[in-house]
Amino acid sequence: MRKIAVLFCIMVLFVSGCTLFQKPVKDETTQPGPGTLNQTFYGFPDIPVPSELNFVKEKSFVYEAANLRVGVMCLSGNVDLQSLENYFKINMIKNGWRFVNSFKFKDVTLNFIKDDKTCNIKMVKDSFNAEVEIWVGPVSSIDKGPVQRGNGLK
């Protein structure tokens, strides 16, 4: 009987130890489906991310309230900045975002707007990896349209 109890304990320790080596599952992601090749979604269902980029959980956060979802997603991977820029310009528009402008020199920054929120994507390339920060925030009432002046000046 003692041998069976010892064997059972060893078996339980072995099985529970193997679970430590399993690869963790990504949080809040949607895997690619038909027609969405090479796309993953982290925290925001309308912001596609190339599957070559790895989500950096330690630097990312999402805040959600009743009708508000804002946050920062940080990603990294060995991807060319020009291909990343093209990817975001094409796929953000497909997801209902409107391209506003971009800034390029060493880094690339893309700005998009959609309904009541904005998205800023900053891409930096170092020796081996591209670092991507995606900032999502609300649109202020000032940003929604032209200012109406009632003083008669033009």
A few lines on this structure:
This protein is an alpha+beta fold and 154 residues long.
Describe how the helices and strands are arranged.
Elements (H helix, E strand, L loop, with lengths): L1 H17 L10 E2 L8 E4 L5 E3 L3 E2 L5 E5 L2 E10 L3 H14 L3 E7 L3 E7 L2 E9 L4 E9 L16
Antiparallel strand pairs: 1-2, 2-3, 4-6, 5-6, 6-10, 7-8, 8-9, 9-10
Word description of this protein:
With 154 residues, the chain is α+β, with helices and mostly antiparallel strands. The chain has helices spanning 2-18, 81-94, and strands spanning 29-30, 39-42, 48-50, 54-55, 61-65, 68-77, 98-104, 108-114, 117-125, 130-138. The strands form two sheets. Strands 4, 5, 6, 7, 8, 9 and 10 form a seven-stranded antiparallel sheet that branches. The radius of gyration is 23 Å and the shape is globular.
The assigned structural class equals: alpha+beta
Number of helices: 2
List the secondary-structure elements in sequence, H or E: HEEEEEEHEEEE
Number of strands: 10
Gyration radius (Cα, Å) is 23 Å
Kindly report the average pLDDT value.
78
Spans of 5+ residues with little confidence (pLDDT < 50)?
Answer: 12-34
Q: Tell me the strand percentage band.
A: 35-45%
Kindly state the percentage of residues in helix. Answer: 10-25%
| Biggest sheet details | 7 strands, antiparallel
Q: How far apart, in Å, are the first and last alpha carbons? A: 96 Å
How does the overall form come out from the CA principal axes? Answer: globular
